[in-house]
Design brief:
Layout (H helix, E strand, L loop, with lengths): L8 H23 L22 H14 L2 E8 L8 E10 L3 E10 L2 E10 L2 E6 L3 E4 L20 H7 L1 E5 L3 E2 L7 E10 H5 L9 E9 L4 E8 L8 E9 L10
Antiparallel strand pairs: 1-2, 1-12, 2-3, 3-4, 4-5, 5-6, 7-9, 8-9, 9-10, 10-11, 11-12
């Protein structure tokens, strides 16, 4: 007698559905918290009224910068102004010593170059081609003293709390890191606060977008305005990739 086996249709249909459900549940698990924004961070609620305002978000982000041991940071523009001296890009490590070690690219006295930079003990050193290490005044090349970018009174964190007309945008994944969710805040910043970090800036006010992560930390600041006299508005972007960095930096 021959046994007729019926097709296992139910099992055949169930397996893909289970797999689909598993993928969906993993996807939801991976995206959990994506809708959270710094405005739901109770640690930033300074006045305890159960409502976190954009101003409190900026104050909390400033606190994170002011309390870190150091950061890995870059400051750059994609624009190319017609100027004898301007900073195109700088990146490296800043510690609260205060000190900085990294590289800078730009036009220095009409010459375009990329150089190594160390700023420590209130002195600014640049390794120039042929010449070697030399001490310079950073303002002479329209660059900030990078060691002071973490200064609570005149550095990047001061720009956050100087911002006016703050508006919160929609949370999104960071372009530089797909696993990082950030929330943008648009604002205007008085020129005085910008001049502390980019000394050649004559503009009275600058448009700003601050990107804050779920821990309330500043990840990116995009600043647009008049950074050089007689030059069209430029956009500089400050990006912070790592907090709580420690590094011993010494003079060359």
């Amino acid at each position: 007698m021959t046994t007729v086996r019926r097709p296992r249709r139910r099992a055949a249909l169930t397996a893909p559905l289970v797999a689909l459900g598993l993928v969906a549940s993993l996807g939801l698990a991976g995206c959990s918290g994506d809708d959270e924004s710094p405005s739901s961070n109770t640690s930033a609620d300074a006045d305890g009224d159960d409502e976190v305002t954009p101003e409190e978000v900026m104050a909390f982000a400033k606190k994170q910068l002011d309390s870190t041991s150091g950061v890995t940071l870059s400051l750059a523009t994609d624009d190319s102004p017609d100027a004898d001296a301007f900073l195109k890009r700088a990146e490296g490590t800043i510690t609260t010593a205060p000190a900085f070690e990294g590289t800078a690219e730009g036009t220095f006295n009409g010459i375009t170059a990329e150089v190594k930079v160390i700023a420590v003990d209130a002195k600014f050193y640049v390794e120039l081609p042929v010449v070697g290490w030399d001490e310079l005044d950073p303002e002479s090349i329209c660059a900030p003293d990078p060691a002071m970018l973490l200064d609570p009174d005149s550095g990047v964190s001061n720009v956050l709390t100087s911002a006016e007309g703050l508006e919160e945008g929609e949370s999104q994944r960071a372009a530089s890191d797909n696993e990082l969710v950030i929330t943008p805040y648009t604002a205007t910043v008085p020129g005085e606060a910008i001049k502390n970090i980019l000394p050649c800036s004559p503009g009275d006010s600058f448009d700003a977008t601050f990107s804050i992560d779920g821990d309330g930390r500043l990840r990116e600041a995009e600043l647009t305005g008049e950074f050089f006299s007689g030059v069209d508005d430029l956009t500089y972007t400050i990006s912070i990739s790592e907090y709580d960095v420690t590094k011993e930096i010494t003079a060359p």
